[in-house]
Design goal:
Elements (H helix, E strand, L loop, with lengths): L1 E4 L5 E4 L2 H15 L9 H7 L1 E2 L3
Antiparallel strand pairs: 1-2, 1-3
Length: about 55
């Protein structure tokens, strides 16, 4: 299971890495727009943790 936890409390988990990346990018754009220009799919992939299902 792929997971990303944001410092603000937002969390996303999914078996599909691409869906996690899309969810995090949408979260950053809406909640942290000042960070959005620097948060690329590659950056998000670096934040993904693999956790047991």
């Amino acid at each position: 299971m792929n997971q990303v936890n944001c410092e603000c409390g937002f969390s996303v988990r999914d078996e599909d890495e691409d869906r996690v990346v899309e969810a995090v990018l949408a979260h950053v754009a809406s909640t942290h727009p000042d960070l959005a220009p620097n948060v690329t799919p590659a950056v998000v992939r670096g934040w993904i943790e693999l956790v047991p299902s």
